[in-house]
Specification:
Shape: globular
Distance between the termini: 35 Å
Order of helices and strands: EHEEHEHHEHEEEEHEEEHEEHEHH
Bound molecules: nicotinamide-adenine-dinucleotide
Low-confidence stretches: none
Mean pLDDT: 96
CATH class of the largest domain: Alpha Beta
Number of helices: 10
Number of strands: 15
Helix content: 25-40%
Oligomer: single chain
Amino acid sequence: MRVLVTGGAGYIGGTAAAILLERGFDVTVLDDCSTGHLEAVDSRATFINGSILDNATVAKALQGVEAVLHFSAKSLVGESVTKPEIYWNTNVNGARILLDEMRTAGIKKIVFSSTAATYGEPKEIPITENSETKPTNPYGASKLAVDYMLTSEAIAHEIAAISLRYFNVAGALKSSSGWLAERHDPETHLIPNILRASDTAPLKVFGSDWPTQDGTCIRDYIHVVDLIEAHILALGAATAGSHQIINLGSGGGYSVREVITATEKVLGRQVPAEFVERRAGDPAVLIADITKAESILGWKPSQNIEDMVRDTWDSFQ
Ligand SMILES: NC(=O)c1ccc[n+]([C@@H]2O[C@H](COP(=O)([O-])OP(=O)(O)OC[C@H]3O[C@@H](n4cnc5c(N)ncnc54)[C@H](O)[C@@H]3O)[C@@H](O)[C@H]2O)c1
């Protein structure tokens, strides 16, 4: 079975392509390398170097494909506030073009990278798929728009669709061609930033007075390999005419202080850190309820925070 991986030069899409190939799938990657990296594209994949915003390119990428894993997107929250047009275009129009070309080609299965950012500031913890969706930035809103798009098209056109709402993805994969790891620019994710902290550029911890046990924010982290496992299960679980939304996290949370402690354990040394003001719009706690992933996909995460930190650290060496 051939799968199209959009965004397969990126962190998560590149990892997905490598694991799919290991499992015997044929893979086509479509990526314009705008935030991804050419060398992250698995050499065994068919690579289409182009944009999801170009119909002819998407049609070419869909040749011989039976299912799509749609990772390509812009995903910097701050940039989405200052340049929302990029997010509506790449994330929403990109999905629109992909679905149009899938319909023309008769391809009816899609797994979409949605996000916890669709929920905004949660009223309840853990967050279930029935929790209110009220994104606090254009990035989350653009992903929520695609979720709505998928719900309507699944019903109208017998599409089998699953949106996976990721919480904080971390960790790395050592593939046959080397490490596949986070290389965002700017890097806004905690674990790579903790690992890069130094005496001259200490880690900035935003707020020490949150209503949590140790005063720092709590987030739910999921290893990228566990995340891709859920995508492969979703390919099997998606059913025609239905769009399912499923959270992917660990079902538990770690405070920033706890992630620092886990990192210090892995590194065997202290991490230089300084406390600064809270950031506007940061919720105190984000934890996923993952009961639905367990019941529908038969999935459970297998790796813990130290695994995520260790793999990221090893990928840096
Ligand atoms: N990393 C996380 O913690 C996280 C959390 C929630 C959701 N997500 C979602 O997961 C997906 C992958 O995230 P990532 O961290 O791997 O990001 P990434 O930036 O590493 O990967 C995105 C890829 O999409 C490609 N792309 C962007 N615009 C494109 C276009 N117009 N045409 C073709 N390709 C294009 C980029 O070049 C890049 O390779 C995104 O949809 C993101 O919103 C990520």
